[in-house]
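Q: I have 287 residues here and want to know how they pack in 3D. Can you give me a structure?
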Amino acid sequence: MGEVDPAFIQDPEHRPKLSVTETEGIPLIDLSPLNSSDNISDPKAIEGVVREIGNACKEWGFFQVINHGVLLDKHKKIEAAARKFFAQPLEEKRKITRDEKSMFGYYDTEHTKNVRDWKELFDFAVEEPMLMPASLDPEDKEETKWTNKWPEYPPELRVACEEYTEEVEKLALKLMGLIALSLGLPVDRFNSYFKDQTSFIRLNYYPPCPSPQLALGVGRHKDSGALTVLAQDEVGGLEVKRKRDGEWIQVKPTPNAYIINVGDIIQVPLFKLHTKYLCAVYFSKTR
């Protein structure tokens, strides 16, 4: 089985289960009524989607969407380019390691709940440069600029990422509109909060683990932004915590679907919704 650095080992109560809970999955919502000109004139079709999303947000905080409008070709291009990047030797990937000047680029020592994640990642901003506070002091009004770091190889990665970003950003804003409608608000109620946004895309790579019963690709956590738009490959492994009983449920991969995680920002009172963080994330896995 090999050795695993103790930094990766989860406490016994948080280690991966040997058995998977077999139960109903998170809601699967078909967005085709929003993409079909034939159904746009039928308010009942839209109302049904809005109702499903509202219920999913209340009951789960998660849902899957299909027929979402993101071009499959863009998805395949970024996945192929990401796999090429992560397949490189470590020294090549670390040439664009994130640092104190910018939190974008490659990283392989991320921790969740003080335990190291069994993964590598590559982050980049949706809008560049990203303006961020220069310090944690709320009285400090100085800002710093974070810029993207792009590797030399593969050369197609940057274009694939930028094209994909446009597609996922449209989907995220569409979903925010549907959430607004489910709350009885105008469809564009949240749009102004995401101008000059601080959204980012993350590519995650999970290498094979010699002791998978001890470590996790990403430990238990909440997402702090508005929405996470998550692409899962056929390997699976994602688990979500069911609200009503606290049970961890494995999400079965659905071809060409996105898993939507409603972040903490959506749960705060509306008058406090001042974030610019509309998080869109792409996860890549491997056996």
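Q: Anything worth noting?
A: The chain has one domain: 6-34+41-285. The longest helix spans residues 157-182.
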